[in-house]
Design brief:
It holds the Pfam family ABC_tran. Keywords: ATP-binding, Nucleotide-binding. GO terms for molecular function: ATP binding; ATP hydrolysis activity. By secondary structure, this protein is an alpha/beta fold. The two termini are 30 Å apart. Helix 3 packs parallel to helix 5, helix 4 packs across helix 5 and helix 5 runs parallel beside helix 6. It has ten helices and ten strands. The radius of gyration is 19 Å and the shape is globular. The protein has a six-stranded mixed beta sheet, sandwiched between helices.
Length: 274
Amino acid sequence: MSAQPRSDAEPRGGAEPLIEAKSLSRVFGHGANTVRAVDDVSFTLGRQEVVSIVGESGSGKSTLARLVLRLLDPTSGTLHLSGRDVTSLKGRDLQAYWRDVQAVFQDPFSSFNQFFTVRRLLNRSLRLAAAGSAERGETLMAQALEHVGLSADVLDKWPHQLSGGQRQRVMIARALMLQPRILVADEATSMLDASLRANILNVLADLRRDYDMTILFITHDIGQACYVSDRVLVMSQGKVVEQGPTDEVIFSPRHEYTQRLLADVPRLHENILD
């Protein structure tokens, strides 16, 4: 069984999308070694919306995230932020974009400079935030840490002195200090145990509620996607094979690939209904 992606890929409420990707593609290699990591992908991301991109390793979801973050240039297609074409931003314009669009990645340990304390790590991010005075910077750091459930005591700790969950919370706080409009969470819970995963998912939900933040959540775990998302996009071999409101994708999957992902989470339907 195969199916075309659902047409209901619009942000909730019918408002103008915050992010709009049109026919994005990214090709690596040449000739016989060509790989279409992202192949003609279009989607929107609305204000205060959580959209999950789900797929197995190699599906293209993380490459798509890097295109949205402008860490990679697309081979073809366009990307718009609030109607503005941001596909080819460079220099200061790109830095300004990164204040609006921040990321939390898979491995919180490798995201740290191991020779920096948490305070120094966060201070470097404050340069991009243009926080102003040192006092203002300290306030931003304390507020961001408090929001992710950490005390200011962690500021003078080294990365190896923190647990995996604490390191990931610091990385979320680092992004939060810039007060971005969009947070891209790329497999942000995949290296954590079950209890820590749930904790980080709840932090992300709080950010949407308390900061009116829009979140693009990248995951191989369709169960996590169901927990946090308004809409789900399912990717396979670089293409979006299915997308739509979370409950429709979960309870009425059209594509065999989506059905297989759901079959790997046998209690998902019961857990949603409980």
